[in-house]
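Q: I'm writing a short explainer about NADH:ubiquinone reductase (non-electrogenic) for a general audience and would like to include a description of its predicted shape. Could you first generate the structure from this sequence?
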Amino acid sequence: RGFLQILGRTTLITMFAGAGAFYYVTQLDRNPGTQLPFDPEKKTLVVLGSGWGTTSLLKTLDTTDYNVVVISPKNFFLFTPLLPSVAVGTLNPRSIIQPTRYITRHKTRQVSVIEAEATDVDPINKTVTFVDNSDIKGSVSSTTISYDYLVYGVGAEVQTFNIPGVQKHACFMKELGDAERMQREFMDCELRKGTPSEGVETAAFPGQDSKEIDRLLHMVVVGGGPTGVELSGELHDFLEDDLKSWYPELAGKIRITLVEALPSVLPMFSKQLISYTESQFKESKIEIMTKTMVKEVKERSVVLQMPDKSIVEVPCGMVVWAAGNKGRKITQDLMAKLPQDQTNRRGIAVDDFMQMKGANGIFAIGDCTATSYAPTAQVASQQGAYLARVLHQIARRDALQDRLSALEQVHAALPPVVAGDVADAAATAEAEAKKVEEEKEELKRQLAKFKPRPFHYSHQGTLAYIGSDKAIADLPFMNGNFASGGVATYLFWRSAYLSTLFSLRNRTLVATDWLKVKLFGRDVSRE
Ligand code: FAD
Ligand code: NAI
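A: Of course. Here's the predicted structure. Afterward I'll give you a sentence or two in plain language.
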């Protein structure tokens, strides 16, 4: 009994200490201190975007080096890997976003965060024009500012290949709004913009035509990359874990089809993991159609080009388009201003130091660039952190250069030593000139040392959720690759993403959402 009492007391003390520490950390986060004001002597660094690349840059950046201005149409960072979980209601949309000010308010010098969309970058005059894209407009809605350095990290948009009907009828999985809309309207099985709602409830309506039920409950995911595969897995979980219980009469009729133009899904994973995913999907009754290309999306069907080139129209209730990325218009416009150097159709060409080729003072990171790396969060965040370190070196180099220019002016202004000067005056002038010369030489020596290391990407592995509490992982291991799939990998996937989330707040919210869904399931009520 005494032992149990001591154990009880120890547990209680540990719990209180843990809760106290947790509270302390959250309060530190909520109450940022006073920041240094902008310094007119410092150069202006404009950062476009608040995504993976630029958020990672802001976290590492030494803001005492610059006056920093962040411009982004979203005033938050979005943790994209968990976006498909929001789409089916596993996670609350707010759990995977982090306001940019939560990061910038903790920096030493103040950072100006402007919610606006950059519409033009002038690489010659070094200016950025941006517009207020919110619904509520103030007295000013468009402004142009100058920059000394620009970090360009606006990401990419969804690639539709101009396929007819995609913009109008399909749903995307790129922004928080896409997932929120899908979550809200999932029960409608009718994500098509501007069309009347119909879906699970419509399918369940007494006397509904059986062909119509089959159509309404057929969900087509286009693109067998990681986005399409993860979304199919999440959709399957929702149907299996929740809809089956609440709509038993429809359970067997719900179908998911994943359409991929290439011979296999997930080309970036090892053959072993591709086969594993395919067999898991087969077990989960998710149909994979490879070598099949979507040619058109209609209001109530998709038109497919089959492997034998025949054209088939398949009725469906919902189409989710996850067919890859393409450059934003502002990126294409910027590249068009530098036609000699920017010829890569995939995106902005940069050198090994992330400098945009042909532009002075512009650095580009993440999905908007065309590099040898895949357009992933992992690459963008490493580039962001790398660039923050380079910018610190550049600030030091610029300070040395400024000092050197000042000394050169002093040197030029020194009176020449002329024959006939009083010996003392001549000696003083000579000593002064020597001092200036020595300092100049020292500055030149230091400047010569300024050689930032090129960007080096360190691949930490690739993970993907495939549904039914299973995930796949290709991890670099002992100079080789370790491929694994299954429930243990799924637990690893969860803990990896939980620890990658940028803040304690996000980690707590996501963990709580997971627990809520485990206990109570997802919500199937319609607004
Ligand atoms: P983004 O993160 O897209 O950020 C771009 C920023 O620019 C945004 O803040 C945007 O609002 C802003 N912006 C847009 N237009 C303008 C403008 N005109 N002016 C100013 N700002 C602008 N990668 C992984 O490595 N692992 C994963 O598990 C993973 N899962 C993913 C899941 C999904 C559903 C998706 C869609 C992507 C996933 N990715 C994953 C890919 C990853 O999200 C991207 O590679 C990453 O977001 C690229 O970072 P970025 O900073 O270049 O762009
Ligand atoms: P993706 O480019 O990887 O895949 C898109 C797929 O759609 C391609 O396989 C393409 O062949 C197919 N496709 C294109 N047009 C088609 C058509 N008309 N009909 C049928 N299929 C068509 O795009 P995704 O999945 O959005 O990923 C984008 C980037 O984000 C990638 O670099 C990816 O690695 C990364 N990402 C990583 C994740 C992870 O690591 N877990 C998760 C999600 C994205």
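A: For your explainer, you could say: The longest helix spans residues 377-413.
Q: Perfect, that's easy to follow.
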